[in-house]
Amino acid sequence: MLFYGGFKRHLTVVEKLYLWSRTTAALWNKLHQATMGNSGSNSLGIPRGKGPNQVGCTDLMVEHTVKGSFLRLYYPCVESPDAEMPFWIPSKEYFTGLADFMKINRSLSERIFTYLYGSFKIPAAIDAPFKPNGKYPLIIFSHGLGAFRTLYSAICSEIASQGFVVAAVEHRDESASATFYFQEKSVTEEENQQGTYKTTVAAESNLEKVWMYYRPVEPGEREFPLRNKQVKQRADECIKALDILTEINSGISVTNVLQSRFDWTTIENSLDMCRTAIMGHSFGGATVIESLCKEFRFKCGIALDSWMFPLDDEIFPRVKQPILFINSERFQWAGNIIRMRKLDSSTIPRKMITIRGTVHQSFPDFTFLTSHWIGKILKLKGELDPQVALDLSNKASLAFLQRHLSLEKDFSQWDPLLDGHDDHLIPGTNINILQSSI
User: Fold this and answer.
1) 175 among known catalytic residues
2) Is 360 a catalytic residue?
3) Active site residue: 360, 365, 393, 397, which one?
4) Rounded CA gap, 115 and 329, in Å?
5) Which one from 59, 305, 365, 422 is the annotated catalytic residue?
6) Which residues pair with 353 in a beta bridge?
7) What does DSSP assign to residue 300?
8) In whole angstroms, how large is the CA radius of gyration of the chain?
């Protein structure tokens, strides 16, 4: 649920601003000032990780078909002052996918998105050398509905800077705005291209890219069967990512379908596979619960503003690992909280906190890349400063991970956050529900 509610309803405001602004140069300048903020583009950007490690990132696709696995890995890297950073949105097809997801005009929205977001980069060095330093805990991250692997780079970069390896899966259950895989070219296509130069992101020249876009609920279709099927596939994809990284850590060679300078052999024996966790936002929060039920190698889970609708009630008693729910103040409702509360246990640690002045979009990167008033219109920002909000979420997550992965870190300094002890936190939830409803 990346663009739940306001963003989908109010993007037409930005469309109108864009069209009107093209009528005169003066109005265009006004739009530029409004979208970029009073101090220009330098006031916007994805924050760098605050931990002691410089962060690198690289993409991995194992098996070229739709049944394969696709992820972006964030990791502590060897420091380099002139490191290249990748664009936040990897290609224009992702803008197309966002337009389809929000049911707006493709060509117009591509211009809007390119103008607003096309120049931003992720604060991580692409394909930078891996930094060997003992064994790193591993986090698998699951994105929300309509998102994809790069949209939570602020969270992933911060966790990686603190000494973790984070694998952000790009789901192929048709819940992402866009994703891609490869298929083999026909003999005719290969013959036609002989003697010509053609760029490709595939390492093998006989493959061509196939785009997969978001699949909406059809008129008259019941939503639960679709979402329940998707959350099961999402969990399987998270587990498959864990399997692949386990193989790499064991020294088993894997073939990356994508062109990459990253040396995957440097990760061998550098991941602590006894300390793995899963994390996700919205639909990704539901994926956390489903994955914990299916895979006991995940020692704990963190669900950010989880959307519980896709889950079967019957799985709740089978989840045995600790869970931390971090919710926004404006998104949750009684029925959703009741389903979270069904996971309460007297013997298994289950925590819930709510961040005051936040909205559902306080977790993805969009909240850092949109000016104050546009962010408010599109419900990408709450009343609380986005950096303060995400700092609280990240610190609580790190404290939880230290506690339940038995880490020798200093994250326990943030333990009080897990009980809601901060002026910007609410212990549990701000939603009033009857105990008899749980």
Assistant:
1) no
2) yes
3) 360
4) 30
5) 305
6) 326, 427
7) E
8) 21
Name residue 425's beta-bridge partners: 355
164 — phi, psi (to 5°)? -125, 160
Residue corresponding to tokens 């990240």: 394
Kindly report, residue by residue over 367-423, the tens digit of the pLDDT: 999 888 788 777 789 999 999 999 999 999 999 999 999 999 999 999 999 999 999
Of the pLDDT bands very low, low, confident and very high (cuts 50, 70, 90), residue 271 is very high
Phi, psi of 182 (to 5 degrees): -130, 155
Tell me the pLDDT tens digit for each residue of 316-366.
Answer: 999 999 999 999 999 999 999 999 999 999 999 999 999 999 999 999 999
Residue pair 350/300 in contact by the 8 Å Cβ criterion: no
Tell if the pTM clears 0.85, that is, is over it. Answer: yes
Cα–Cα distances (Å) from 299 to 118, 161, 190, 234, 401, in that order, read: 38, 21, 47, 18, 9
C-beta separation of 341 from 332 below 8 A: no
Among 209, 438, 237, 205, smallest CA distance to 339 is for 438
Beta bridge partners of 298: 276
| Structural domains of the chain ordered from first start | 6-189+201-437 (3.40.50.1820)
Q: Which of 153, 177, 270, 282 is catalytic?
A: 282
Distance of CA 360 to the CA centre of its chain: 13
* Active-site annotation holds for 305: yes
String of DSSP letters for 84-152: ---BSS-SHHHHHHHHHHTT--HHHHHHHHHHHHTT-B-SSEETPPB---S-EEEEEEE--TT--TTTT
Q: Which residue has the higher pLDDT, 204 or 232?
A: 232
The pLDDT score that the predictor gives to residue 43 is 80
Residue 333: Cβ-neighbour burial (10 angstroms; 0-12, 13-18, 19+): exposed
pLDDT in tens, 92-136: 999 999 999 988 889 888 888 998 899 999 999 999 999 999 999
